[in-house]
């Protein structure tokens, strides 16, 4: 079977990495690049940089990666759906729920793969965490907690921290917990003088009863990328910046200190750090996209899943505006 002819639309901060991975992913042939702003990261390597999606379609592509700013997702993706092109679009899926719903319908009607680039699902630590949770390693799961904090990235200009960063945590938490959100309550802050929020603190519950909490901001002078799943046997902690996964087991020995023993909880037990094969998450994402096109895998994040995440993100913003919890 011939390789899948791939085009990349958008050669910016994320697009340049998609170009590299599209070139190197087995089964892909990179045949078209497009960006109206040109090739500022010098990734074309002699390939012509086309002005837009229409010219990319004229080259003849089977699949596309869309890595333009969110405001331009809808127009480009709808043209790709109409042309019957399998598409991987960077997160979030769209600017509005209405656009997202139209995109999902367009790809369903076209019968081609529509995927969303939630690359954290391809992080080695989270892949292993989800496998262990799904196999009952923790027993009953009680809570999922995420922290995503860092300095402000100058590349972001069109959205706040909720749509840019919290969207990752909403998606991965639901994926790890194996359930959709039932409710969410959020508070935001505007501390850097921008139009959009730069801090959010959110708590909620999944439909399966698992509690969830997200802490996200652009005002922390270090990078913090942590996901914690607590269950009846202990806690799994993923540091996704380093792709490390650690298990903190509940203690097995009775507590002999009366003041602590009086509290009916758990004690500290053994700590296990897992040895993981650490592949680049974006490469894994491209392979999942390829396998979905070939019909040999279903690990990609579908546009319908991306739309559900958008609904939770909008509920976060609505909750922050109203001061009330939002049920989904």
TrEMBL record:
Pfam families: GFO_IDH_MocA, GFO_IDH_MocA_C3. Residues 4-118 form the Gfo/Idh/MocA-like oxidoreductase N-terminal domain. SUPFAM superfamilies: Glyceraldehyde-3-phosphate dehydrogenase-like, C-terminal domain (SSF55347), NAD(P)-binding Rossmann-fold domains (SSF51735). Residues 127-236 form the GFO/IDH/MocA-like oxidoreductase domain. It comes from the Bacteria. One of its GO terms (molecular function) is nucleotide binding. PANTHER family: BILIVERDIN REDUCTASE A. This is Gfo/Idh/MocA-like oxidoreductase N-terminal domain-containing protein.
